[in-house]
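Morning!

As promised:
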Amino acid sequence: MEENFIPHFKNIFENSYWPTHYQLFVCRNDGVILYQNTDRDNNLDSHSIGALIGGVWQAAKSLSDFIPGPDLKDGYRLSFDTSSQGVYILPFSLNGIEYYLGAIYKDEKNPAKIKNLMRSKIFSLEKHFSTETNAKQLSDKEQYLFKNISDQEMDDIFNIYS
Amino acid sequence: MSFVNYHSKEVNCKIVFYGPGLGGKTTNIQYVYQKTSGDNKGKIISLNTENERTLFFDFLPLDLGEIRGFRTRFHLYTVPGQVFYEASRKLILRGVDGIVFVADSQLEKMESNLESLKSLDRNLRELGYDPERIPLVFQWNKRDLPNISPVEDLEKQLNCEGKPSFSAVACEGTGVFETLKSVTKMVLMNLKGGLQSPTASR
């Protein structure tokens, strides 16, 4: 199902103004990267970035439970920055599942402008998916992807260690 | 929860190494890291305290080979073992596809093993998982030390359901890949989705 989101991420984040010094990542709450705007598709370091975005968000969210008063969880965003470089994470929700848009940037004269652009793009994404019917996407989820994996097949995927 | 991308033909799965403090969880993934060539691994991330104890998690992304045309990517995480990091352990279990329980074989660690196993069960249930349906493999680590429980005792006290288990000396690499291969196979066979792309089949 989530693979169907990826073209929309591309449309929204690539067909608009983004400074080239911004690295954008969309990841799930378990850290799996669904989209990145860099060309480093095979670079496993982006997986580490996803794990850290997911981890830092969830840790911050747990900390926020200690804030006294009414629950304002929906309004949070996370910023770790100086005036010109940093990390910015925004949560958003598609089909009731939480995802994060993370940006890593440097040499930025006006970070607020880009943060605002990120928020507006998230708003567009959520609006788009709130109007699209997605129930059909669950079609054959109950089938197992691989049946009867043999020991030989396991040896093959582990042969990088032989 | 795994991620199957039919367009790029790859699967991403999350494996968590769980267990009591100083049991060898980090040593397991450090050994895997050392033995993996540069193209097949990403940077190992360790969020540690000053004395090298895991504070939040260790993370290692692995790019294994292909199976039936799908590229397999595994995200290996360890949890902090110390008792007071319970909240962090629960966060890291979110989205888990398979678990390696690294038990410390030393006789005096049996209580810690049991406590950690109970915490695993509790955290999984609180996250909405059925612990009996999550692929789980046991590793009896530190088999090279003198004062250790017999494997039969470990099986009896910790593995009453007869899940796969492996003896290990993780610091020497013994049993590390056997354990990883076993949990990996269980995770792959537990993946749901069907071999055909849902979009292509409509």
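Residues 16 and 121 of chain A are 10 Å apart (CA to CA).

Hope this helps with the figure draft.
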